[in-house]
Amino acid sequence: MSVRAKKHLGQHFLKDENIAKKIADTLTENNYDTVLEIGPGMGVLTKYLLQKKLTTHVIEIDTESVEYLKAHYLNLADRIISKDFLKLDISTILNNEQFAIIGNFPYNISTQIVFKTIENRNLIPELCGMFQKEVAKRIAEKPGSKAYGILSVLTQAFYDAEYLFTVPPSVFNPPPKVDSGVIRLIRKENYNLPVDEKLFFKVVKTAFNQRRKTMRNSLKSFNLSDKLREDTIFAQRPEQLSVEEFINLTKSIANDAI
Q1: Which residues bind S-adenosyl-L-methionine (predicted)?
Q2: 231 annotated ligand-binding residue
Q3: Which of 10, 222, 226, 240 has CA atoms 20 to 30 A from the CA of 107?
Q4: Helices (H) then strands (E): counts for the chain
């Protein structure tokens, strides 16, 4: 019995054992005893997670995959969550304990997985996973490049991001049309912002929505005072600003509104 890859779920099953083990080994196993794998499919990665000292849980929306896992991984049966990760209240599934996230993520929901991780960062000290290469690069990118954007800044405000290795299409069934990339996110020691989080998200998104413009033009809608707009930061484009500069800018904007 094998599971048929379903296009609407964005399934591309990893078939290379070496890469599955390599992904499992990206986990540092620091500051947590539990790992949650998203979208295990037929368990090629799960197998290597079960060899670790960690307690492995998996979450799978595809009922055919759930049946396969129950039949082939008997010791995992009571730790299979047959639900949609994006619709789940994370705090309820693992009794509020710290856990890492891992997976060969479906491309169509991979950025949403990152944003959900950020929302629940108090519970998630680490995320290791496979994304479309372009998305993986964007998450881990540093300032000054075209790939650096909203996803880079919002992720790196809370996590240290590292691009680990590239994976070719040939190791999947069916093969995707693009390369994949594996990254690791490790939660920062101080993962709460010293500014209003909603305002920070708004500043970052507004700035990058018109990324070719200088900050002075892209943040026009904030109706900032002339005095603040004279700051040299406003002569730069958003991709030139570090996470720290975006945090300081948000602080200045909040003070400007008082």
Answers
A1: 12, 14, 39, 60, 84, 104
A2: no
A3: 240
A4: 11, 9
Domain containing 205 — which CATH number? 1.10.8.100
Q: Is 72 annotated as a binding residue?
A: no
Is 12 annotated as a binding-site member?
yes
| pLDDT tens, the chain, 258 aa long | 576 655 655 456 678 899 999 999 999 999 999 999 999 988 899 999 999 999 999 998 888 888 888 988 888 989 999 989 999 998 888 888 999 999 999 888 999 999 999 999 999 999 999 999 999 999 999 999 999 999 999 999 999 999 999 999 998 877 878 999 999 999 999 999 999 999 999 999 999 998 889 999 999 999 999 999 999 999 999 999 999 999 999 999 999 876
| 145 found inside a domain | yes
**39 marked as part of a ligand binding site:** yes
**This prediction's pTM:** 0.93
Indicate whether 163 and 209 sit together in one domain: no
CB 42 within 8 A of CB 2: yes
